[in-house]
Amino acid sequence: MLNLIVIVILSYLVGSIPTGILMAKKVKGIDIRKHGSGNVGGTNVMRALGWKYGVLTIIIDALKGAIAVVLISRLYLGAFPFPNATPFDDFTLVQIIAGLAAVIGHIWTIFAQFKGGKGIATALGFLITIITVDMLLALGVFILVVSFSKYISLGSISAAIAVPLILIIRENIFHVDIQGYHIILPFVIAVSLLVIYTHRSNVGRLLQGKENRISLKKSR
Predict the structure, then answer these.
(1) Residue 80 CA to chain centroid, in angstroms?
(2) Which residues lie closer than 8 Å to 170 by C-beta, 6 or more apart?
(3) Largest CA distance in the chain
C-alpha cells in the first residue's frame, strides 16, 4: 500500500510542475496568470509568448503524463494492495492510476495554490500510452477543429468528446478487440468529463462569441 501511495504522490508532483508559469517567467519575466485568459496552459502561453513557446509548453505538459505512466509507475513492487477485478494486470492498473494522478496534479497544482491548467495535454500524454490508436485519432480531430475554427478550446473539447466515441466505434462497429474495453470506456469518459469541466468557462465564451481565436503572433 505504501508503495502505491508513493507512486501516486510522485505522479501528482510531476503533474503539478507549472510549466506555463516557469516558461513565462524564464522567457519574458512575467506571471502568465496575469496575462491573457490567466490560465497557465500552453494556449495562454502561446498568446503571451508566441506559438513556439506555447507548443513547447504543451509538449512538456504532455510528457508529464507520459513520465508518470512510463517511468514513475515502474517503482511499483509487490502485489497490488486491493483485489484487482479489472482485465488488466496489476502493473497496467498502477500505470493508469499514476497517469490520472498526474492529470489531477496538472489541474490542481500544489505549486500554484491548486490552480493549474485544464488537463488536456497531460491527459493526452497519459492516455496515448494506454490507448494509442484512439488518442492519435482524437488528436487528428483536435487538429482539424483548430485548423478550421482557430479555437484551441473548441479543439480540446471536441477531442475529449471524440475519445470515448472512437473507442465505442472501434469496438462495436469495426469489431476491434480493445483490451479492457468495458473498464477503459467508463474511465475514459470520466477523464473526458473532467477535461470538459475544466473548460466550462471556455464553453460560456464560445456560446457568447467572446472566445479568443488562436494567433501565431506573440503579444507585445
Answers:
(1) 26
(2) 133, 134, 176, 178
(3) 56
